[in-house]
Each structure stands twice: as structure tokens, then as C-alpha cells.
Sequence to fold (262 residues):
Amino acid sequence: MKLAVVIPAFNEEAQLGASVKILDEFLSRHFRIDYEIVIADNGSTDRTLEFARQLGYERRTIRVVHLNEKGRGRALKSAWLASRADLLSYMDVDLSTDLSAFPPLIEGLMSGGFDLATGSRLLKPELIKRGWKREFISRCYNVLVKVMFHTRFSDAQCGFKAITRPAAQALLPLVEDNGWFFDTELLVLAEKLGYRIFDLPVRWVDDSDSRVRIIRTAWDDIKGLIRMRKNCVGGRYGRATSAQKAAKQLPTGNSNEQCNST
Ligand SMILES: Nc1nc2c(ncn2[C@@H]2O[C@H](COP(=O)(O)OP(=O)(O)O)[C@@H](O)[C@H]2O)c(=O)[nH]1
Ligand SMILES: [Mg+2]
Fold:
């Protein structure tokens, strides 16, 4: 059994080294299974790639993936699909999510009970420290996702997720977004197609050094939701389910293909 922890990195020369070392120490202390940390850089214009490669030389647990085209979703898809690990995960460079949630996140998959595990900042608000603006936008956005898709997971955009290899192989080709909406698209698809999602409350301290352009990202998210909604109405995900079931790529759990009824 092997675990891959992907760290998407865009212009992160200031934080990358310290965070990756903290993560490596943490994983070596808390995990008995084999693991690799994959730094996934694309589009960085600072020395992120150089620093990442240096870390790769220094530590046998660290690998680097580099793509020319920007986009966090693109980096995650590519790093997950290229990894040979059985369990695939990712977290943001700034380690905003407290690492104490990582062992239970992975345990949820290892126990065989879940196909995808995701951190949530909305299940236990008392564990969260972030500015009112991001909190407000996050809450409104997640209400919108629920209203549009009748999904049960609570936080679509938390940068702290893990997925089994078979689920990733079946779902990632269906995820069209290569940017920030990647997370929402993955979760909505997973739930609609009957994958079992572990929604885990996390402790989170916001890092003010953000790459998110709020208005632009919010608009892209809304466009993404509308596109997915159209796909639902057009029955596209239902067709994917049938095709994948035929190819025996889907779990036998209850598929929640109810886009059309909402
Ligand atoms: N590989 C890659 N990583 C990205 C890109 N954009 C953002 N990231 C990473 O995504 C993570 C979350 O970014 P951050 O700015 O902390 O987002 P916030 O916490 O929502 O404000 C960080 O690890 C970033 O370096 C991108 O285009 N490519
Ligand atoms: Mg952050």
C-alpha cells in the first residue's frame, strides 16, 4: 500500500521548503505505509521549481512534477494520474489545514469505507480561523452547490482531499475544469455517481498569502456550476455512469443520479 501526497505549488518559493519538511517529518512519524510527496508546479515564475528540485535531491520521499500550463486542477489531475500510489491525496502548501486531520482522512479510505475523503471547514466552525469575507463567500457558495445539486458534502473547496486510485481513474477523465473549480466538480461528480464521500471536519487557519483572485474565481465557479447543471439536465453524467458501470469501474453503492429531478 502506497500513499501519494501532492502539493500543488504556484509561486511558492517562500513557503515551499519549510512546509514540505514539516509534512515529511509528520508523515514519517504517523504513517507506517510507504509514501511519497509530489510537488506539482505549473506556471510558477519564481524559483519554486528550482527549490522543489533541490528538495527532491535532498529527500528520497520527494518527487517533482512540472507542467508548463497553469491551473491547480490541471496540476492535481496530472500528478494523481501519473502516480503509482494506491491512495492519492493533496493539500495546499500553506498547510492551512491542521495536519492532525490527515491520518483520519487517509484511514477513511484505508478502512475500505470510503472512496473519497475531503476536509470540511463548515462542519465545526469553532475550529476555523478565517476572515469574514472568505467565510461569507464560502458559505454562500456551498449553499448554492447544495441547492443546485442536492449534494450532501459540506465544503466544496477545501484544499485537503484524498481519493482511492480506482475512484481517481474513473472520475478524473470526467472532470473538465483545470483551475479552482476542479474540487467542486470532482465532489459533485463523485456523489452523483455513487461514490462514498468521507466529510471530515478540519482545523483551519487561513493564510493571508493567497493566489486566489476572489471575483474572478467566484465567477469561474458560477460558470462551472452552470455547465455542470446543464450536463446533469442533458443526462451526461447518467450516461457516464452507465458506461463506467459496464466497464466495472464504479462501486456497487447507490448511485445518486438525480440531477434531472432537481
Ligand atoms: N500547481 C499549481 N498550484 C497552484 C496554482 N494556483 C494555486 N496553486 C496552489 O494551490 C494552493 C492553494 O492556494 P492559496 O493561494 O493558498 O489558496 P487559498 O488558501 O484559497 O487562498 C497553494 O498550494 C498554491 O500554491 C496553479 O496554477 N498551479
Ligand atoms: Mg491558502
